[in-house]
Hints:
Helix content is 41%, strand content 20%. By secondary structure, the protein is of the alpha/beta class. A 6-stranded mixed sheet has the order 2-3-1-4-5-6, with helices on one face.
Amino acid sequence: MFEVRIHGRGGQGVVTAAEMLSVAAFLEGKHAQAFPSFGSERTGAPVVAFCRISDREIRLREPIQNPDAVIVQDPTLFKALDVTEGLKPDGYLIVNTARSLSEMHLGEVVARLPAGHALTVPATELALKHINRPAPNTALLGAFAAEVGVVSLESVLEAIRRAFPGKVGEANVEAAKAAHALIAAKAAA
């Protein structure tokens, strides 16, 4: 089973990201579940959502304590809480920022992970460019598909189209494709 924890703030599409990730897994014939954990339900409040992906039926229902991957939609959360708590030693960390991991002072976290398992992606900037809104979730899913490979980009794009039909969906698809291309190019370099 592959477990993902997504951290962000209310209004950033954290819950929707987990749902789209689970749909992408379903599209590939896998079992998946997505669910949120709310503190105070207001815009800007910290939000956590979870997604489990497996080749077998998933019977667990509790929050994910030891994720295989952590996606951080709002980098200011590093100052508020330990978003990497419980991240497996061979896990992945994907952070929405245009800054480098060293500029984010994440050297200690990066040192605990295998080389290449921690990365930054300017998802908000990509969202503003393609969607005209600071909604980084779909761009981060594109980056996740490129970096982790648990689901394909094609499945992520179809999940986005199902969540956001029409022009809005296609704009989000372009943001996801741009993030995927950016991460694939970094990996090839």
